[in-house]
Design goal:
17% of the residues lie in helices and 35% in strands. The protein folds into two domains: 113 residues, ACT domain (Alpha-Beta Plaits), CATH 3.30.70.260; 113 residues, 3 Solenoid (Pectate Lyase C-like). The strands form two sheets. A ten-stranded mixed beta sheet has the order 1-2-3-4-5-7-9-11-13-14. It has four helices and 16 strands. The longest helix has 14 residues.
């Protein structure tokens, strides 16, 4: 089995399995099964984070890998990817997700690629088109956009902005790498906990009568919440 298609290594919370992002999917998953089978029961009982780079993986494809691992006594609990399609598939299967924008196995590194101006060419991020239920989490090195609600018990961590096109009830941390210009926007802003860079705010227990779009940002060394005018 070519080492370039599958890589398995131990990490603090189990195993990290990295799959090639270019080769044919059926061949890669067959190589994965063969690699695990070669080790007998060595991997049995392991919790697995799956890294697939920029490859878009459909829900049925990811479900097949999940079943492949389960038949060998392993548990798929998280997926790391650059693809929105893959991240949405993982969330649909109740898996933890992590947006990853670093080069992956099978992707080419181009040192001469120009640096883009984010004001003109857009910035990296992840978009989720579903409600985030309790226990789910999304981490991104860029922005996070949720088309749906973020329920209490769900968590969003982003180096950039967080935009929720719905109700925000969970924990959110924007500007996680220290960006104090980051903002959090929601159609109904009632997070359990809200952080921007190193600042933190907790929603008061009382509820507003009429939810309205709002934006949270840092002003005068504290988090303030204002009307979101779009």
């Amino acid at each position: 089995m070519p080492d370039s298609t599958v890589a398995i290594k131990g990490v603090n919370d189990g195993l990290l399995i990295t799959l090639d992002s270019v080769e044919e999917w059926g061949m890669v998953t067959a190589n994965l099964a063969a690699h695990i089978d070669e080790k007998g029961e060595f991997f049995s009982g392991a919790a697995v984070t799956l890294e697939v780079g920029a490859r878009p993986v459909r829900k049925d494809e990811l479900s097949s890998v999940k079943a492949l691992l389960e038949r060998r006594g392993m548990t798929l609990f998280a997926v790391s990817s650059e693809s929105d399609t893959t991240l949405e598939s993982a969330i649909a299967l109740d898996l933890r997700v992590r947006a990853n924008n670093q080069p992956q196995i099978g992707s080419a590194y181009e040192p001469d690629t120009p640096t883009f101006n984010s004001e003109e060419d857009g910035t990296i991020g992840v978009m989720i088109r579903r409600t985030m239920r309790s226990g789910r989490s999304v981490h991104s090195q860029g922005h996070v956009v949720i088309y749906g609600d973020v329920n209490a018990g769900a968590e969003i961590l982003a180096a950039g902005d967080v935009i929720v096109w719905g109700k925000l009830r969970g924990i959110v941390h924007a500007g996680a790498d220290g960006d104090e210009t980051a903002v959090v926007c929601a159609l109904d802003m009632q997070p359990t906990q809200l952080r921007i860079a190193g600042y933190i705010a907790i929603s008061p227990p009382e509820k507003r009568r009429k939810p309205k779009p709002e934006v949270a940002l840092i002003r005068n060394d504290r988090i303030v919440v204002e009307d979101w005018d779009g």
